[in-house]
């Protein structure tokens, strides 16, 4: 911990390219013209590629993504500059600055990765023309673009969190900052810690193996290549990532006899904790919509739940939680932490960390209750509405067997929904000041237990999944 006679600043001043009013006016109109040309030009390219079937090839798919990225790169900075000129203000808040930096780094580097992918596409088309169609399949093209997005976002996140961890000072005042936190875990007793270690290790291995088996079964069994199982595979992947953010760190700390976590590690853990935690909710919402379409609109199911729509729904389920996590992590990074750096938890839980802050957390708490509440409650509300329609429709089925068949496809999903949201809402729909040790234990339900239960719930209650898993296990045993 370092103590200095300083206080942090809450905003920056953007001086622009010139301090002369006449030059500022010229720059304003020039940038406005360039921005409009950029947006309109790239939108035309995206529309042309989307509407012309002859352009539905890998090269133009990558070009459409590049055009989208070019629109985003310009939109991160220029509109803010234009608005600042119009209202006569050159200030930008700390959180706005960090978010602008995050997206600036992301989209600028995204351009480089997409250009690399396009170069590889041209290499295959010119140097390996006979293998082009077999290599540059749609799945590989989507994977290359997805990898480009993931790497650039992680790169931007790392640099933004490192920047947010720096101190920016203005006025003099007694204040201190910390460079690491201490994770106290679930118990201070050595005997209990040993039991918790082996219990968490067992749960983690079961979670990873169980969810991996579901992903493999869905991927290898052609009969499971349907929207419902596509969403389930994504849920299983998220359930592998969710505990992997926290449990390995806890297990390593126990083995090496340390319970510290650096400030940057803590912020990164918090980001992925919020991201994957909320991603589960969004995927459960998408799965509820899929069940609604299958039961209430069966004649329209195949036309509505097309592969493109399924990919879009999953993409939204990834993007929204990541943006939500970024906002809350940057708000947390803006807070000051003075003397107390002990977190009564085995992870950097947002509420537990916020409670340690010596800053005013009013704005942070307000965002949690407004934006955070919307992100948390919206999926649950959509799930509830979907099942109201499902149950009202099921009750109209004349045969008992038909009712049982319809409900059997929803039972496993509902079990997971109640388990997940029961714990989540009980902890996080309250002010951070009310966070207690009971909430720490309760958080284990959705951070550790729910990801482990999911494979059992979906495999034991789903006949198709049971058969696919049996085939997978038997085939591996024979091999």
Automatic annotation (TrEMBL):
One of its GO terms (molecular function) is G protein-coupled receptor activity. One of its GO terms (biological process) is signal transduction. Odorant receptor. It is a multi-pass membrane protein. It is found in: Cell membrane. Keywords: Cell membrane, Disulfide bond, G-protein coupled receptor, Membrane, Olfaction, Receptor, Sensory transduction, Transducer, Transmembrane, Transmembrane helix. One of its GO terms (cellular component) is plasma membrane. This is G-protein coupled receptors family 1 profile domain-containing protein. Its main location: membrane. Residues 41-163, 210-458 form the G-protein coupled receptors family 1 profile domain. It comes from Monodelphis domestica (Gray short-tailed opossum). Belongs to the G-protein coupled receptor 1 family. The chain crosses the membrane at residues 26-48, 60-79, 99-120, 140-162, 195-217, 229-248, 268-289, 309-327, 374-394, 406-429, 441-460. Pfam families: 7tm_4 (PF13853). It comes from the Eukaryota. InterPro entries: GPCR_Rhodpsn (IPR000276), GPCR_Rhodpsn_7TM (IPR017452), Olfact_rcpt (IPR000725). The keyword Transmembrane helix applies.
